[in-house]
Amino acid sequence: MYRSAASVERLITLLGKLPGIGPKSAGRLAFHILKMSAEEAGDLTDAIRAVKEKVRECDICHNISESSPCYICLDEKRNRSVICVVEEALDVPSLEKVESCNWLYHVLGGRLSPLDGIGPDDLHLKALLDRISDETKEVILATNTSVEGEATAMYISKLLKPLEVKVTRIARGIPVGANLEYADVLTLSQALEGRREF
Ligand code: ZN
């Protein structure tokens, strides 16, 4: 059997561990990297090192940032009376493409998933409750429309009930079971406009 150089094999194995990358794609990427100039390849490794060294979680909203508080939490021009709750930090840039999303965020760091052993204590729920103040007029639950995302939204709405804050859930437009990160701007903006009170 043909075997490549050990270092190439290692690169293929590591690339193959990335989500959505099968063995064939991993091989193609590895050979693409081989053809890069030393400078281009260096930029890539620097970028990977930099995100691991510099990026951290915002202590307030748990979004990823190079500083804490993050730039969104610090932004004075935002509507600070609305907190939009999302599952993962990668949902924030998707929503930020919608012009009307000029609010604050709260990143849960996942969704309730008993089968995977993820319970309420594994999400940033206490931090969310701590953030609700007299200033808070609405909490938008923008978790995914999957079964787990819906269950998580339901759980949070019950948690927020005693605080008497308006709780809404994103609505039409997002197909059931879909991930927000894959939704286009128009669909997201319709889903946000059509949010209904829980
Ligand atoms: Zn923040």
Topology:
Blueprint: H1 6-15, H2 23-35, H3 38-54, E1 56-57, E2 64-65, H4 71-74, E3 79-86, H5 91-96, E4 103-107, H6 125-131, E5 138-141, H7 147-160, E6 166-169, H8 185-193, E7 196-197
Parallel strand pairs: 3-4, 3-5, 5-6
Antiparallel strand pairs: 1-2, 6-7
Helix pairs in contact: 1-2
Residues 58, 60-61, 63, 69-70, 72-73 line the site of zinc ion.
Report on this model:
The structure is a single chain. The protein has 198 residues and is α/β, with parallel strands linked by helices. The protein has a domain at 78-198: Dna Topoisomerase Vi A Subunit, Chain: A, domain 2. Helix content is 40%, strand content 14%. It contains 8 helices and 7 strands. The protein has a 5-stranded mixed beta sheet with strand order 4-3-5-6-7, with helices on one face. It has a two-stranded antiparallel ribbon with strand order 1-2. Helix 7 links the parallel strand 5 (138-141) and strand 6 (166-169). Helix 1 packs across helix 2 (23-35). It is elongated and about 65 Å long. The termini are far apart. Zinc ion binds next to helix 4. Residues 58, 60-61, 63, 69-70, 72-73 line the site of zinc ion.
